[in-house]
Amino acid sequence: MSVEFALCLLTLFLLASIGTPIGFSILVAAIFYLAAAGQDIGLAGEQILQGLYESFVLLAVPLFIVAANIMNAGTISERLLNFCVAAVGRFRGGLGHVNVVASLIFSGMSGSAVADAAGIGKIIVEMMTRDNRYPPGYAAAITAASATIGPIIPPSIPMVLYALVSNSSIGYLFLGGIMPGLVIGAVLMGLNYYLSVKRGFALEDPVPLKELPRHTANAFPALLMPAILLYGIYGGVTTPTEAAAVAAAYALLLSALFYRALSFRALYQILVSSARSSAAVGLLIGGALILNYVVVSENIPNVLAKNLVGLDVHPLVFLLSVNLLLLVLGCVLDATTIILVILPLFLPASRELGIDLIHFGVVAVVNTMIGLVTPPYGILLFVINAVTGISLRQIIGEIWPFLGVLVFALLLLILFPDIILWLPRVFGYAG
User: Fold this and answer.
1) Residue 78 burial class via C-beta count within 10 angstroms: exposed 0-12, middle 13-18, buried 19 and up
2) Fewest CB atoms within 10 Å of the CB: 24, 96, 130, 189?
3) Cα–Cα–Cα angle for 80, 412, 138, nearest 5°?
4) Domain residues for 54?
5) CA separation (Å) from 388 to 107, 114, 128, 397?
6) Rounded Cα gap, residues 186 and 425, in angstroms
7) Do residues 384 and 125 lie in contact, with contact meaning Cβ atoms separated by under 8 Å?
8) Residues 6+ apart with CB under 8 A from 269
9) In whole angstroms, what is the distance from residue 59 CA to residue 275 CA?
10) pLDDT digit string (tens) for 250-274?
11) How confident is the model over 371-389, as pLDDT tens digits?
12) Residue 204 CB neighbour total at 10 angstroms
């Protein structure tokens, strides 16, 4: 490692430690490296433009953000929750199950954990805490934990970003996320049932089965969105980027025309908010493109790969070690930074060790989602705190059992790759 690269890392950590947004920190540190190494600073702009021009897939990110924000503004979230209450609210821990199932469904529309938590989070937490049915901390914790499913089941913004840095197929990544999302939903519902019995949470009054068709009909147009997206991508009708545009258009038509729950003023606010969120992600992507150039210039990925192969590291040991590191980094870094900056360092080593990059990518995305609910940084904890007013102390006090089962699910995905790879193989993946 050169002196210039050491100074680059020092600058990055120093800026981040004093509260500079991570996107700006990465940009400044990378430009500082170019200047210290005597390279043309104009390379920074060249790397950003080249990376963006070669990455048509990045258009999917703002489109999925728009789709999620439109669904949150309309009545779609409420209709989905009413359907989930009618379907699973009758069982022990009913509203907790509703929480998880709603996240499973909503994840097939938004691709964002934050959109999931902010969209249905406030509504379901209010339902769970009404009349002291569930402790506020518990309701907030299971909401945060279930929101992690959002970017695992397709569509998924983090998987789009992983495809950018790994040149993997987005279609196969999306397929690889379906079974892990269901596994995580199952372990969360299992824990919710156990805790509901242990702590004596009250049973909900069941919605009569005769009303289930009505709730299903109300939610049916929204439930169609995941099916439309998946058919578009895997039926060869659309590319993943075009599918993101279809998702945004469908959400707009559904909210504005079918449900009549979206005004022009609200749409304007949605577009402004989406532009800001997209710009924040774009800033981080731009910084990561320059920093990745710096890392490649230092030949760090290849050196790391050769050293690992020389040590004859078993692929499983490598995978477990990388995931342990990612869990630790998830406590202090956001998912986008980890995917764009940290993961590329391990991709050459993964190839050398024969680790399937679809398996590696889905596991890494699941890992970074766990980081979203890991104290002290866990951004979903702050989101739930902001939209519900429940204190962080209460949320963190209840989050640990959910963190435990999420890590257990992650371990299953590492040890049994077929959970991830089975569905892609059914659709022709040769890995």
Assistant:
1) middle
2) 130
3) 45
4) 40-426
5) 21, 14, 12, 16
6) 23
7) yes
8) 73
9) 12
10) 888 888 888 787 888 888 888 898 8
11) 889 887 788 888 888 878 8
12) 19
Q: Are 389 and 351 a contacting pair, CB within 8 Å?
A: no
Q: Is residue 236 packed enough to be buried (19+ CB in 10 Å), middle (13-18) or exposed (0-12)?
A: exposed
Tokens, residue 334: 């956001």
Give the residue from 346, 361, 345, 323 showing the smallest Cα distance to 173: 361
Q: Which residue has the tokens 């999931």?
A: 116
Nearest CA to 111 out of 258, 209, 204, 243 is that of: 243
In the block, residue with structure tokens 């545009």: 245
Domain count, the chain: 1
171 SS3 class: helix
> The tokens of 122 are what?
């406030």
Tokens of 173: 């990544």
245-257 per-residue burial string, b: 16 or more CB within 10 A, e: under 16: bbbbebbbebbbe
Q: Is the pLDDT score of 54 beyond 70?
A: no
CA distance 297 to 308: 20
The answer to whether residue 405 sits within a structural domain is yes
Do the domain assignments include residue 11? no
> Using an 8 Å Cβ cutoff, are 161 and 340 in contact?
yes
| Residue in this structure with the two tokens 């040991």, named with its chain if needed | 317
- The C-alpha atoms of residue 354 and residue 356 are separated, in whole angstroms, by 6
pLDDT digits (tens, 9 = 90+) for 109-139: 666 777 777 767 777 888 788 777 889 999 9
Phi and psi torsions of 263, nearest 5° = -90, 165
Q: Environment class of residue 324 by beta-carbon count within 10 Å: exposed (0-12), middle (13-18) or buried (19+)? A: exposed
Of residues 236 and 31, the one with the higher pLDDT is: 31
DSSP letters, 194-241, are HHHHHHTPPPPPPPPGGGHHHHHHHHHHHHHHHHHHHHHHHTTSS-HH
At which residue do the structure tokens 């009404």 appear? 130
Please indicate, yes or no, if residue 35 is contained in any of the structural domains.
no
Helix (H) or strand (E) holding 86: helix 76-88
What pLDDT shows up at residue 400? 95
Asked, for residue 355, whether it belongs to a domain, the answer is: yes
In terms of Cα–Cα distance, which of 286, 405, 403, 296 is closest to 337?
286
